[in-house]
Amino acid sequence: MSDNGSYFGDDGEDWDDPAERVKMRRRPPVASIAISALLAAVVITSVIVVGSTKLLPGGWYLTFIAADAVFAGVAVVVLLLSSPGRNKLRFWLVTALSVVLAVANLGVAKVGYDYLSTVNHIQPPKSDTILYDIVVLTDGPTDISQLSQSIMGEVENDALSAVVHGQVLKRVQVSFQPTPTWTGMVDSLMNKDISSMVIQDGFMQVLSDANPDQYDSMRILASFEVDTSLAARPTPTPSPTPTAAPQNSYVLYISGIDTYGSIAARSRSDVNILMVVNPDTGKVLLVNTPRDFYVQLRGMAGLPDKLTHSGVYGVDVSVGTMEDLYGITISYYLRINFSSLVTIIDTLGGVDVDSAYDFSYGGYSFTVGMNHLNGAAALAFSRDRHDFAGGDRVRGQNQERVIEALIKKVSQPSVLMNYTQILNSIQASIQTSMSQDVISAQVRQQLDKGTQWDVTSISVDGTGALDYTYSYPGQRLYVMVPDQSTVDLAKSMIQSILNGS
Q1: Could you tell me if 249 and 276 are in contact, meaning their C-beta atoms sit under 8 angstroms apart?
Q2: pLDDT tens digits, residue range 220-243?
Q3: 250-341+391-499 CATH pick, 3.40.50.410, 3.40.50.12780, 3.40.630.190, 3.40.50.1820
């Protein structure tokens, strides 16, 4: 109180003066303004990020916005009418509530941001990469510098020759000798007509299958990746894939590539499974096609080839080949490598896989019936083919069993609620053409319906034979000539699932 009986605020303002009171009401404390602005910014950011994920149905999203707006609005209004000097209890109470609301919104925004970041990360790049190897004989140079001024073989008419030359010459000065085919170049190296060769790693994988003795007589001195967008001529045109969220049934092609590490590299497609999904009926059909199936590769005129070799030419060739074989349109693909399988299953806490056989492989033992497997054990379960009379047929069936176990595990609400954490942990190990809209729609639908999927597995079959292949024409390789009756049955079952019958 002043000497004349009037009251003053903390800042010396005369509160008994009506003009001063109005002035005070129009000038909230700086602390209130700052906290209100911060809260509003966090809430708006959270609303935008959540909306971008498209995970919440329209009604739930509007409810989220309304609830956020009401709580934040009330907090802001009370803050602006409060002062740390005059309304201490109210100010600090609302400030505490504002902090809680801001932290909650930041948490929601973080989850949404992680989801968007992960989905963008697992999308396929506009162009893929090809891994090239610089190869010598095992009794040859042990360091790339020893190749200086020597002759290095290369495949004639390689669309990426100019880029490959640049990458090699960064490492060592050599002269290049073109050869019409990569197999001819291998022969030249074996005959020591050239000191080394630069070759796509995918063809080295083919060689390891086709001629293990030759492969074992070679050493890779260095490797480098080349972006296919730098090709002098276009690579095979990708098959069109829808980007809109599916309204009902669709086909997903799962390609298991024969590598550890980077998912971006082209490689043999050792696992080729179609997952035919009908969300309306809750039915899933898994169709396994053996890796050695003798088929015509899309865009490759001439000899048929093993299906596994299609991956060497890019996932689009694998997709197109599967479409041609079954007379279907594949909506999306998922590429997964050996590292992916281990990471995914370990992130999920393991899966329960039903085995039809007692067997051991890779240091793990499996019994008839249900087996709880971690990632490494599931990989071993999926890879063994030599311990079965059915060989690759049984391996394909075991791979389907692992996928079926994965479907059951990821369909659980407890897993779906933490799916952003799962995606974050595996984002470097998978690649899919499913858009963000599609992935969001699938998760949202599963959370809404809690569908208990009815999974059926089949495998097409054929007869083992020796024949020439497009990728390795100089020698007969083991192939599986398709049994058309099994292919026709698979076609019929695929259409049945797609049509909901």
Answers
A1: yes
A2: 999 998 887 766 544 444 444 443
A3: 3.40.630.190
